[in-house]
Design brief:
Number of helices: 2
Order of helices and strands: HH
Shape: elongated
Structural class: mainly alpha
Number of strands: 0
Strand content: under 5%
Largest sheet: none
Amino acid sequence: MNDDLAEREAHRVAREAFGPNVDRSIRMALERAFRAGYEQAQREQRTRETKR
């Protein structure tokens, strides 16, 4: 099975499992996770600066 076919099959399975907006849902989830991690890092940085 070539890569393109494998990728299409993976997308098809994902759509069956998660619904038709799977790409958007995953992208939004990744963006939320990234933002949460970034905000946590910012809070930790501020905490370290105030302890000095």
